[in-house]
Amino acid sequence: MRNKENQARKTGPATPAILNALAILESFDAHTPTLSLSEISRRLGIAKASAFRNLNALEQGGYVVKDPRDGTYSLGSKVLDLARRFSEKDRFLSIGGAHLRELSRATGETSHLAIMDGQEIVYVDVAEGSHRVRAVVSRGDRVPGHCVASGKAILAFSERQRVTEFLAGGLKAVTAGTITTPDGFLTDLDRTRRRSYAVNMGEWAEDVSAVAVPVFGPGDAVVGAIGIAGPRLRLGAKMLAHLSGAIQVQARRLSLELGASAGCLAEPADVHLAAIRRKRGAVAA
């Protein structure tokens, strides 16, 4: 199932061998760090001979390693090398790590850096909190952008076209608290822009709350979000509002280091969200 979803996201011409090699790399995760040739063949629905040729090429390149004892495969060090190069290239990620750790130290909560990829939020870095009971967020996790604080923080400060395109994808209910109507979602974005932070109280997971602040880069364009998440019993509305101050401090510092102007987090006008409402009303009429 996961392989079919991954393949569906790929567009444009590509050779089957390349797609198979990428699918093999994506088949390893925290639950299945090692796989046999038969398991890979069965999971991906490709012949053993084809899987073996791809694995052999990946092994020669250092992207997978083969255990000589049982013949199983796992990811190689070259994958980590690519991740390191991405981290060095992406200043949001490389610079943001220090701010993330400082935020966790200051609040005791699990903190995260997030970017938006299509309709989803991707957590690109995570710093664990000090509380014994805390939210579980892992690097690389992908969640629907409309039901988490980071997604709303990014969209609230994005261009009108980006918000319009996002709404066109629909707002699927994940919990009873998920906002599923465009008007309700736009109202939440209005509120986010006015107070400069977004919240999520049980919209993605019923027992989890979160608060996030946008991060800006050159030209004051939003590049991602920084936030914290934790148990809803501990993080009520008042606590989220209180913790937002610590997040805004780190968001401002990170934004300035990325090249944003000093006033990038000042309260902006809600013109573009109002324009989206007018456009939707005209279409409905």
List keywords for this structure.
2 domains, Arc Repressor Mutant, subunit A, alpha+beta, Beta-Lactamase, three-stranded antiparallel β-sheet, 285 residues, elongated, six-stranded antiparallel β-sheet
Fold and architecture overview:
α2 packs across α4, α3 (37-44) packs across α4 (48-61) and α7 (149-156) packs across α9. The longest helix is centred in the C-terminal third of the chain and has 21 residues, at 237-257. This protein is an alpha+beta fold. It contains 11 helices and 9 strands. It has a 6-stranded antiparallel sheet, with helices on both faces. Mean pLDDT is 85; it is low at 1-13, 267-273 and 279-285. Helix content is 48%, strand content 18%. It folds into 2 domains: 10-81, Winged helix-like DNA-binding domain superfamily/Winged helix DNA-binding domain (Arc Repressor Mutant, subunit A); 90-284, Beta-Lactamase.
Extended strand count: 9
Largest sheet: 6 strands, antiparallel
Radius of gyration, taken over Cα atoms and rounded to an integer in Å: 21 Å
**Secondary-structure element sequence?**
HHEHHEEHHEEEHHHEEEHH
* Total tally of structural domains: 2
Nearest-integer average pLDDT: 85
In the CATH scheme, the class of the largest domain would be Alpha Beta
In oligomeric terms, what are we looking at?
single chain
Low-pLDDT parts are 1-13, 267-273, 279-285
CATH superfamily of the largest domain: GAF domain
CATH architecture of the largest domain: 2-Layer Sandwich
Percent range of helical residues: 40-55%
CATH fold field value of the largest domain: Beta-Lactamase
Shape category = elongated
Tally of helical runs? 11
Strand order of the largest sheet: 6-5-4-9-8-7
Estimate the strand proportion: 15-25%
Distance between the termini: 41 Å
Q: Helix- and strand-based class?
A: alpha+beta
